[in-house]
Amino acid sequence: MEVKEVEYTDYIREVEKLSKESTKHKKDHPEQVPTENESLHDQFESEQNVDSIPLEDLKQDLQDEKKKHETKSHSDSEERFKKNK
């Protein structure tokens, strides 16, 4: 039974190692364009639990704030839904 436990713990360690490698951010650019640079999330430990703000959403929100009376003529959710199709 000890042999199986050792194999299992080795397996768990390997899975954890692969999981950490696969979750590393390969995208430094805010628009999620692949780059060779290390992202801020990887550079600083304090940034590892922070989500980046999608610039497209931020731009749309800023436009909505500028054009307060025109915001009801279009829907952000419709635009996002079209992109996901």
Molecular structure report:
The chain is an all-alpha fold and 85 residues long. The protein has two domains: 1-51, no CATH class; 53-85. 55% of the residues lie in helices and 0% in strands. It is built from four helices and no strands. It has helices spanning 2-23, 40-43, 55-66, 76-84. The radius of gyration is 21 Å and the shape is elongated. The model has no long low-confidence stretch (mean pLDDT 68).
β content, as a range? under 5%
How far apart lie the N and C ends? Answer: 51 Å
Overall helicity: 55-70%
Classification by helices and strands: mainly alpha
DSSP, total strands = 0
Figure out the total of helices: 4
Q: How many separate domains make up the residues?
A: 2
Biggest β-sheet: count, sense, barrel? none
Instruction: Specify Rg, calculated over alpha carbons.
Output: 21 Å
The overall pLDDT average reads 68
Pick out the low-confidence regions: none
* Overall geometry: elongated
Order of helices and strands: HHHH
Keywords:
85 residues, mainly alpha, 2 domains, 0% strand, elongated
Describe the structure concisely.
By secondary structure, this protein is mainly alpha-helical. It has helices at 2-23, 40-43, 55-66, 76-84.
